[in-house]
Specification:
- The chain has two domains: 28-171, Immunoglobulin-like (Sandwich); 173-295, Collagen-binding surface protein Cna, B-type domain (Immunoglobulin-like).
- A hairpin with a 2-residue loop joins strand 9 and strand 10.
- The strands form five sheets. A six-stranded mixed beta sheet has the order 16-15-18-13-21-20, with no helix packed on it. A five-stranded mixed beta sheet has the order 4-6-1-12-8, with no helix packed on it. It has a five-stranded antiparallel beta sheet with strand order 3-7-9-10-11, with no helix packed on it.
- It is mainly beta.
- The relative contact order is 0.13.
- The protein has helices at 2-24, 309-334; strands at 33-42, 52-54, 60-65, 80-81, 84-86, 97-103, 112-119, 128-129, 134-144, 147-157, 163-164, 169-171, 173-183, 193-200, 211-215, 224-225, 231-235, 240-247, 251-256, 273-276, 287-295.
Amino acid sequence: MKKILSIVFAIVLTLSMGTVALAEEGKYTDMSQVTITKEYKLTNPGTTSPAETFTFSELTNVSVTDAAEGVTVESMPTPTIGSISYELGEAGSENMKKTAVITLPDNYESVGVYTYVFSETQGDTAGVTYYGGEIKLVVSVLQGENGKLRIAAVHAEAEDGDKTDNFPNEYSAGSLAITKVVTGNLGDQSKYFNVTVTLNGEEKKDYAESYMVTGGSFSGNPKSIKIGVPTEFQLKHGDTITIENLPYGVTYTVLEDDYTKDEEGNDDYDKAAYTLSDENCKIDSASDTVTITNNKNTDIDTGVLLDNVPYVLLLACVFGGMSVFFAKKRSSREE
């Protein structure tokens, strides 16, 4: 009996829930605003995004349907949109998702479906990818019990034609590591070599005032480097300096001074050999590396090869013994 009562109670509960759903169907709440959500991503962990404000174009009236006669694209009211601001380092953080508010007009004179489009402003911050697609806002104005109701939705159309409400941005930056290697039997691994590094930015892009440099053993090396300013560093064998947080698109040149001749004009080190992880010398990955190798070899005059001395002495003894033997034999014949 208890089992039957449980089944009956479950059926009644299900029907009551369905009744509530049907009662609520078709009821809407007026919307005075709608939000657009942005996700600010970070391409490579360990990099830091600059402070950035994402702005949008003014909304453009596109169409109006099912409205009263006389309501046209030109006369329909237009919503307004705010901006989204991020502080230093917020890309990829717990604050990577933020919203901008679209304020809907309160002077719709007629029911109807009002369509608008807008886009994200393409900024100039180096390393930032801006959303380039067209965004659509559809406002359905309905007749409610106490006046007109505004029901709004924001979306874009993906390449496959499906709707999406994802409007991402991304900050992309990497690092440049420069390493010194000295080889050869006369290579001085305590010697510092002068290396000039130049960073080159893209046209019409905004860059940070400078970029941090870490590593290296020479205390006088610069701790930062600016875009477009050749900067000298002293590196010895085993040293590596790393330039951090370089936006994608930055190119670089790394040039060591000529050490093929010494101060007296004599031959010194071989021409420096450069090993590049990216032959294009362009930041477009998490890490680029440049290794500079200097080699200095010479033939060493070691005099007598000590390893052969026992054999030389043995041969000398053999020849000496033979000389004594033949001398005695010759002497005995003469007698």
